[in-house]
Amino acid sequence: AQTVTQSQPEMSVQEAETVTLSCTYDTSESDYYLFWYKQPPSRQMILVIRQEAYKQQNATENRFSVNFQKAAKSFSLKISDSQLGDAAMYFCAYRSANTGNQFYFGTGTSLTVIP
Amino acid sequence: KAGVTQTPRYLIKTRGQQVTLSCSPISGHRSVSWYQQTPGQGLQFLFEYFSETQRNKGNFPGRFSGRQFSNSRSEMNVSTLELGDSALYLCASSLSGNFGYTFGSGTRLTVV
Q: Which of A13, A77, B30, B104 has the lowest tally of Cβ within 10 angstroms?
């Protein structure tokens, strides 16, 4: 089974600053999808950004961008101009393109935004 | 459009009882997946249903089961509850997993 590792259980950032959350994954497949999800205290998981492995260009969604390094199996999330509303648990997730609709999640990084 | 709706939001059950959780996906989404979230194990995949058929199953004992109805609504059932079943149970629907899931707010199950 694929494994997803988030090595930073907790991170903090000053409001308006930039923070990068790390994620690595282990797979022997070449075709897959990667995601970052945010889970605020309301519990609902919200999709932040997605990346197709076959695309070399890094995905960007407003203040959120990724650094996708396929050879290194690394998929970090950069949050620019951090806002108080960004405080949440962030989960990195992997989905194979070939073996069904099962996502593998990392253990999460708790992000605190300091006013 | 309405999101993924899970009911109930909170549930307290006694060991040995059984429980049924409900999930209504986004209209048009035929795939429904269930995850168990605990502080120790994180998010673990339970199963996925597509057009009323279980398409994929995680490594959970047979006490955990589910089904999907013709309107794509799904239920999961846990029989003979154990203390370790206490968790947040998340339901997620998708048109295609390539675009990611839309999650519900979950059902918090406490087994006492």
A: B30
